[in-house]
Amino acid sequence: MKLLHIDSSILGANSVSRELTAAVAGAVRERHAQVETSYRDLASQPLSHLSGEIIGANFIPEADWSATQRSEAANSAAALEEFLNADVLIIGAPMYNFSIPSQLKSWIDRVSVAGRTFKYTDKGAVGLVTGKKAVIVSSRGGVHSSEQGKLMDFQEDYLKSVLGFLGITEVEIIRAEGVNMGEDNRAAAMAAAKAAIAKLAI
What we know:
By secondary structure, the protein is of the alpha/beta class. Helices cover 40% and strands 21% of the residues. It is built from seven helices and seven strands; from the N terminus they run βαβααβαβββααβα. It has a five-stranded parallel beta sheet with strand order 2-1-3-6-7, sandwiched between helices. A two-stranded antiparallel sheet has the order 4-5. β4 and β5 form a beta hairpin. The longest helix is centred in the middle third of the chain and has 19 residues. It is globular, with a radius of gyration of 18 Å.
């Protein structure tokens, strides 16, 4: 089994999502005799946000690429190959201002590649990345699983939609919310998330 473990929190050792992605990865390794893990820390080693120069490399001969275009093409290729080679994805996704960290969005932009991970047909888009499982580790300072809270949630549904667009439909969410609403709430949220990790079907 090949596991791709992604963290995107900027909080380092204080991160809820990092603690929980590590727990998920540990659980997978305990259940399977042979696990090959690739790890990508999008906060400490971020991928550049897409720019006109980066995208422009798709429309000119490689011989004419700038130094930036060459280095960014290599970064994109590495991220894409990690993604394509993985059997299981663990994605640490804290909620920042009702959505995901921009660092995680940059990774999504690098692996959402027409002709490699999706294609358009006369019947619409088709995801090309099938047979994978994904675990989204969702952390939230407030509570967004309530009816009112869901109105401001552009995190979990977005990630599920993107993964589904690429062909990954086996997606489980490990959620810890209300972690900034007092120590008792944080402890309860972490306990519930770790209990859910113990029940993961991976």
